[in-house]
Amino acid sequence: MTQFHSYPAPAKLNLTLKITGRRPDGYHLLETVFRFIDLADTVELAVRDDGVIELETPIPGVDPDTDLTVRAARLLQQASGVRLGASIRLTKRIPMGGGLGGGSSDAATVLLALNKLWGTGLSREALMALGLRLGADVPVFVFGQNAFATGVGEELTALELPENWYVVLRPDVHIPTAQIFSSPLLTRNSPPSIMRTLETTQQRRNDMQGVVRQIYPVVDRALTELSEYGPALMTGSGSCIFLECETQDQASKVFEQLSKKWRGFVAKGLANHPLFDKG
User: Fold this and answer.
1) Is 137 tagged catalytic?
2) From the candidates 41, 67, 106, 137, which is the catalytic residue?
């Protein structure tokens, strides 16, 4: 019988997100704070002797070869020269197209887990470099700690954040990140922070939020309603928005009021990625 091993792939929030410039190759330069939360996908992996990488739970209508979990496994296979393969099962709980980093997190979990299961022995830094080839959000999930990020999101400094709770609302719209990054409405010249730790943990802004609010009225409505309870913010390029709370009770009470109209959830902020000590 094939033995599957189960691993978590947590979601993230961007507690702040500034666009400070654009590289000649078109990639945007960012300044952001990544925060892991306890909503997570589940990645199950089984080692194969035939070298085949197979996703047993493909998304209907999506070519499995394009799935980030498959691409991550094949990239690690090529980089390490290992001849083993893997069967992959993916249970999605993180909404797609919500700015919560689900696909990137799934890919990072595959890299971390298969590095152990295959015995490839790559360092965390080497896995982060592989992750960057898959997407700008992948390295922080391999890094495994809440972080201040610059560059395209791959230059990371660990941050200690308070144990807060979050009300997260999920407007019923899927927002393509590329659409927002390419919008002529997007400003790309926010000044970089000087005192990183102090500024980035106190600032609450998202340079993409104004663009999304103009293009997607449902996000604008959700932000307006959640902002009645405190300073609400969009994560990533949307569509999910969140409110930071000090206690679970506070977050639950806010969500109870809004859940009659909006889909969403209450999540706890994590100190580290669940696989951090196993990386």
Assistant:
1) yes
2) 137
